[in-house]
C-alpha cells in the first residue's frame, strides 16, 4: 500500500534480466518462439566478441577456431528454450573482457577500462556470478602490469570507476522504490554480496581457545 518494492530473493539471479525480457516482449510480442531470440542473440554476440578478442591476442586462425568451438557447443540450445540468464551474462562479461584486452593494447589511461567495468557491473545486475569475471579481469591486469605498479593502479581504478558508475545508477534507481538501507544491504549491492559470505564464514569459524 505504500508503493515500495517488496524484497524478493532471486538467489544468484538479478532483476535486470526481467527488464531485458520485458523489452523483448514489448518489441517482439509474448510468444515463446520469439522470446528465445534473446538468449540466442546473446550467445551469438558472446561468440563474436570471443572472436574479436582472441584475434587481437593470438591471430585470426586461433580466433576463428575459438569462436567456432563456442558456436558448435549446445550451450545456446540448452539455454534458449527456458530463457536462462546465463547467455546475457556471458555476453556482458565477454564485452568486459574484450574491453580489457583493448585497454591493455591501447596504453595508459585507456577509457576502455571504464567500459569494461561498466559491462561487468551490467552483468552483475543480470546474474551475480558475473562478479567472477570482474575478479578474473583484475588478476589478468595484475599479471600484465605486474612490473608497472602505477599503470596497474590506474587501470584498476578506471575499471572500478566504470563499475561504480553503473552500480550507483542501479542503486539510485531502486532506492527510489525501496528503503536505501535495504537496497544497500541486499543483493543489489555487489559489496553486500561479497561481504555476506565472508561474514558467514567468519561466524562459522571456531573461536580461539
Q: Would you write up a description of this structure?
A:
This protein has 209 residues and is an all-alpha fold. The chain is 74% helix and 0% strand. Helix 3 (37-58) packs antiparallel against helix 4, helix 6 (86-106) runs parallel beside helix 8 and helix 7 (112-124) packs across helix 9 (149-175). It is globular and about 55 Å long.
List keywords for this structure.
globular; 74% helix; mainly alpha; 11 helices; 209 residues
Report the radius of gyration as a whole number of Å: 19 Å
Main sheet attributes: strand count, strand direction, barrel closure: none
The level of helicity is over 70%
Low-confidence stretches: none
Question: Averaged pLDDT, please?
Answer: 80
Please work out how many helical segments DSSP would assign: 11
Strand content: under 5%
Terminal Cα span: 51 Å
Q: What structural class should be given to the helix and strand makeup?
A: mainly alpha
Principal-axes shape call:
globular
Give, in order, the helices and strands: HHHHHHHHHHH
Report the count of strand segments.
0
Question: In a nutshell, what does this entry contain?
Answer:
The chain is globular. It contains eleven helices and no strands. It has helices at residues 16-28, 32-35, 37-58, 60-72, 75-79, 86-106, 112-124, 130-144, 149-175, 180-185, 190-204.
SSE blueprint and pairings:
Layout: H1 16-28, H2 32-35, H3 37-58, H4 60-72, H5 75-79, H6 86-106, H7 112-124, H8 130-144, H9 149-175, H10 180-185, H11 190-204
Helix pairs in contact: 3-4, 3-6, 6-7, 6-8, 7-8, 7-9
Amino acid at each position: 500500500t505504500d508503493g515500495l518494492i517488496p524484497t524478493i530473493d532471486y538467489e544468484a539471479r538479478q532483476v535486470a534480466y526481467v527488464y531485458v525480457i520485458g523489452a523483448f516482449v514489448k518489441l517482439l510480442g509474448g510468444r515463446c518462439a520469439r522470446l528465445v531470440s534473446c538468449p540466442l542473440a546473446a550467445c551469438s554476440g558472446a561468440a563474436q566478441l570471443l572472436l574479436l578478442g582472441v584475434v587481437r591476442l593470438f591471430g585470426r586462425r586461433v580466433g576463428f577456431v575459438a569462436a567456432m568451438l563456442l558456436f558448435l557447443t549446445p550451450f545456446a540450445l540448452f539455454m534458449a528454450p527456458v530463457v536462462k540468464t546465463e547467455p546475457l551474462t556471458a555476453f556482458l562479461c565477454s564485452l568486459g573482457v574484450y574491453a580489457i584486452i583493448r585497454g591493455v593494447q591501447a596504453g595508459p589511461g585507456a577509457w576502455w577500462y571504464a567500459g569494461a567495468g561498466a559491462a561487468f557491473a551490467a552483468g552483475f545486475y543480470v546474474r551475480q556470478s558475473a562478479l567472477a569475471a570482474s575478479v578474473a579481469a583484475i588478476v589478468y591486469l595484475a599479471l600484465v602490469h605486474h612490473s608497472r605498479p602505477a599503470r596497474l593502479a590506474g587501470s584498476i581504478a578506471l575499471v572500478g570507476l566504470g563499475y561504480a558508475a553503473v552500480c550507483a545508477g542501479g542503486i539510485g534507481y531502486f532506492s527510489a522504490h525501496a528503503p536505501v538501507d535495504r537496497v544497500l544491504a541486499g543483493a543489489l549491492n555487489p559489496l553486500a554480496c561479497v561481504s555476506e559470505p565472508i561474514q558467514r564464514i567468519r561466524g562459522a569459524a571456531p573461536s580461539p581457545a
